[in-house]
């Protein structure tokens, strides 16, 4: 093995599966990878979207995808693998047609996120980072999605499912398993994980404006402020801290 190839010294550590050499990358994909590289002044800046494009055609970060990115960007496969294995959005094993995430960070946990994750695992018969045998659904425990006002949240192909309950999760999974049409609670129609990955790569599908830009839960504070006539202070009204006085007072405290 040359010094430019990626080698894991930890067996079963979740490294990229180099034994699975299957790929759908063709000349069209190579053209699109080159298009992405050309969008940036420094072409290696395109690596993140390029890896999303690899996932959109191969369903994972494939060895062929790593080689393709390295060839286009003129960097080593070790450099590509180092990035691909750092971020959790890059999958080292094939994801399902739909990728389901359940948030179990603090606020979602308080609101039942762990119960949801248990329910989803039991219903699908798979654990975290696994895919159902029919390839329809893969599952991931997610860190905070910055949607805490909608807790507990799940995601399907990175689209939000807000205010989830075990019953709603059951209904959602049944629809996904039966290939029925599903919409995010914010309106957008759910496509597939691979199609979503293509959008993340920078090839829009025209669906970005489906659904509202802000949900009810995010607007509660604004509505209360409007009802009560509260206004944010202007820049002139905001108290200005004097750098000198701050230093003086902190100096006082340390004496
Ligand atoms: S804790 Fe789940 S979205 Fe923030």
Radius of gyration equals 23 Å
Helix/strand/pairing category:
alpha+beta
Biggest sheet, spatial arrangement of strands = 2-1-3-4
Present as ligands are:
FE2/S2 (inorganic) cluster
Distance between the termini: 62 Å
Helix content: 40-55%
Shape: globular
Main β-sheet description: 4 strands, mixed
Looking at how many chains there are and whether they match, the oligomeric state comes to: single chain
Beta-strand portion reads 5-15%
Mean pLDDT: 89
Low-confidence regions: 247-255
Describe this structure in words.
The C terminus is likely disordered. The longest helix is centred in the last third of the chain and has 13 residues. The chain starts with 26 loop residues before the first helix and ends with a helix. The protein folds into two domains: 111 residues, no CATH class; 94 residues, 3-Layer(aba) Sandwich (Glutaredoxin), CATH 3.40.30.10. The radius of gyration is 23 Å and the shape is globular. It has 255 residues and is α+β, with helices and mostly antiparallel strands. The chain contains ten helices and four strands. The structure holds FE2/S2 (inorganic) cluster. FE2/S2 (inorganic) cluster binds next to helix 5.
């Amino acid at each position: 093995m040359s010094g430019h190839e990626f080698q894991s010294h930890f067996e079963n550590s979740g490294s990229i599966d180099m034994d699975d050499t299957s790929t759908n990358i063709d000349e069209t994909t190579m053209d699109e990878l080159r298009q992405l590289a050309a969008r940036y002044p420094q072409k290696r800046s395109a690596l993140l979207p390029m890896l999303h494009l690899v996932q959109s055609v191969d369903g994972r970060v494939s060895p062929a995808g790593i080689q393709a990115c390295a060839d286009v960007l003129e960097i080593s496969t070790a450099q590509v693998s180092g990035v691909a294995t750092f971020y959790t959005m890059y999958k080292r094993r094939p994801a399902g047609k739909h990728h389901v995430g359940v948030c179990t960070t603090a606020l979602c946990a308080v609101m039942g996120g762990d119960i949801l994750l248990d329910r989803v695992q039991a219903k699908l018969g798979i654990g975290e980072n696994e895919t159902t045998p029919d390839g329809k659904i893969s599952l991931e425990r997610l860190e905070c999605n910055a949607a805490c006002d909608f807790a507990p949240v799940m995601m399907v192909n990175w689209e939000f499912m807000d205010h989830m309950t075990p019953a709603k999760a059951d209904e959602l999974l049944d629809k996904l398993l039966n290939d029925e049409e599903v919409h995010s609670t914010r309106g957008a129609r759910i496509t597939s994980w691979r199609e979503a990955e293509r959008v993340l790569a920078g090839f829009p599908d025209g669906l970005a404006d489906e659904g509202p830009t802000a949900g009810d839960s995010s607007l509660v504070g604004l509505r209360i402020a409007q009802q009560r006539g509260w206004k944010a202070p202007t820049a002139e009204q905001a108290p200005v801290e004097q750098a000198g006085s701050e230093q003086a007072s902190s100096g006082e405290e340390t004496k």
